[in-house]
Design goal:
This protein is mainly alpha-helical. 94% of the residues lie in helices and 0% in strands.
């Protein structure tokens, strides 16, 4: 159980990082335009 929870947490953190990177890219493009 703990292993599965930890795995989900890690995947969530990686997913959050990916979302933040995409959001930053979109923000940069918006600022450029």
């Amino acid at each position: 159980m703990n292993y599965n929870l930890g795995k989900k947490r890690t995947t969530l953190t990686q997913f959050d990082k990916l979302i933040t990177q995409v959001a930053l890219r979109q923000a940069r493009l918006f600022i450029k335009i």
